[in-house]
């Protein structure tokens, strides 16, 4: 089950403490008019509170950033790109499911978004994750890589 965090008062935002990629970004950056956090929750057949299986943070931008500093620039015009800038998983395979679910949700609820990209660290782990999930390398930057999801 996909949960979309659109308010800084959402109790699931405590999961941000586990962010392995961009822990320095604060809650007000992650959740505002141009950013949301998506959480994949497991479905619990016993009716107990569902647990988070993966988290991804997304910023909506007019341009595709190549640095975290560029990511921090709030768009002055209507954004056209969903930029996934950090993702982590608590269970194997949950990250892939979350990326696909978040992309589908954005397509349905944010019709002005045309591009789905990442601002990923230039690591082998990130490369394998995104390529296995159907993304292609869009641009290699000095400190990051942008992967493009179809």
Q: Count of DSSP E strands? A: 7
* Number of discrete domains: 1
* Biggest sheet details: 7 strands, mixed
Q: Identify the CATH architecture.
A: 3-Layer(aba) Sandwich
Shape: globular
Q: How much helix is in the residues?
A: 10-25%
Element-level helix/strand string:
EHEEHEHEHEE
Question: Which strand order does the major sheet show?
Answer: 1-2-3-4-5-7-6
CATH fold title: Aminopeptidase
Look at the helices and sheets and give the structural class: alpha+beta
List the total number of helices.
4
Low-confidence stretches: none
CATH superfamily: Malonyl-CoA decarboxylase, catalytic domain
Query: What radius of gyration results from the CA coordinates?
Result: 15 Å
Quaternary state of the chains: single chain
Write a concise synopsis of the structure shown:
The protein is an alpha+beta fold and 150 residues long.
Description:
It is a single chain. The protein has 150 residues and is of the alpha+beta class. The chain has one domain: Aminopeptidase (3-Layer(aba) Sandwich). The protein has helices at residues 27-30, 68-71, 94-109, 124-132, and strands at 2-5, 35-41, 52-61, 81-89, 115-118, 136-140, 145-149. It has a 7-stranded mixed beta sheet, with helices on one face. Strand 6 and strand 7 (145-149) form a beta hairpin. The model has no long low-confidence stretch (mean pLDDT 94).
